[in-house]
Specification:
alpha/beta, ten-stranded mixed sheet, single chain, elongated
């Protein structure tokens, strides 16, 4: 499996590296650690030319130190680790490098979300999750009391779609059995329950819809249990699917939320209305957006 870890020397980047250490895997990981030098937008003159060269050289030293710190943290991991570097816009550079290296999973840290962040939506992690066609894992800071050796608590949002099935399939490629407990969570939107037919009471089908959704989620859990993964099922109804996922996981506090993603056209990238995007922007948990290739 090819993993691209984007780092910038920050604590959130180190959190992302620590999370990679916890990812179980059957085969060795090919891990590319990417550092990006953002070039200042200044007019080149005789005066700025010398300063500019010194700035780029200084950033190179900082990037090499950041890579050295991450490489030391990842010692003992069954992985081939290499350092890659780019110059330019951080988000665009990460997306481009992921395509060039045919990456399976991009891992980026997130500095967390303030209310202002949620309005501005300008983070590198958000840019990557929005613009990349690859699966993206955005790692949020863990609490100070967090035990790094504890089992991972994982919630998989499941809706019977081929995108959810792809997320389950991607998740199953990792050896989670010894290190995690999984909740398969399906949210039934109330508008689906309240769709009346001609001369038909919409709520007559309420029980059947909830029951069928539960059966589908339980089937997904059963497939995970075949891999000796401890998996449970929850099916609940809500007015807004993405809001409910965020609300539910804020209470249950998993280490990771896994979601399938339908992909986005150019227009959708502007509207940014998908469930995965909403959860990424509003949840305090780490989020894995699994994309089907």
């Amino acid at each position: 499996m090819k993993v691209l870890l984007a780092i910038d020397g920050s604590e959130s980047a180190m959190e992302a590296a620590k999370f990679i250490r916890r990812l179980p895997h059957r085969d060795p990981i090919i891990l590319s650690v990417l550092t990006v030098t953002a070039l200042p937008d200044v007019p080149m003159t005789a005066t700025t030319d010398l300063w500019y060269s010194k700035y780029v050289a200084g950033q190179k030293v900082l990037n090499e130190q950041a890579f050295s710190d991450v490489a030391a943290l990842l010692q003992g991991l069954d992985a081939t680790v290499q350092h890659l570097s780019k110059q330019g816009h951080a988000g665009h550079s990460i997306v481009t490098m992921a395509e060039e290296t045919q990456t399976d999973l991009i891992v980026v840290g997130s500095k967390g979300h303030t209310q202002v962040d949620r309005i501005l939506i300008g983070s590198t992690s958000d840019f990557v999750a929005t613009h990349s066609s690859k699966s993206v894992l955005v790692v949020r800071p863990s609490s100070p009391s967090h035990d790094p050796e504890a089992m991972l608590k994982i919630t998989i949002a499941y809706d019977e779609s081929k995108y959810s099935e792809a997320a389950i399939h991607q998740f199953s490629k990792f050896q989670w059995a010894k290190s995690s407990e999984v909740e398969v969570l399906t949210i039934v939107p109330r508008h689906r329950i309240a769709e009346p037919g001609f001369f038909e009471n919409p709520f007559d089908k309420h029980e059947a819809i909830i029951h069928n959704a539960t059966l589908a989620a339980e089937s997904a859990s059963r497939n995970l249990r075949k891999q000796l993964i401890h998996a449970t099922t929850n099916a609940i109804e809500a007015d807004h699917v993405a809001e409910k996922i965020v609300e539910w996981t804020d209470r249950s506090k998993p280490d990771l939320i896994v979601l399938g993603d339908r992909g986005r056209s150019g227009i959708a990238r502007m509207l940014l209305g998908s469930v995965s995007q909403y959860v990424l922007r509003h949840s305090t948990r780490s989020v894995w957006i699994a994309r089907n290739h």
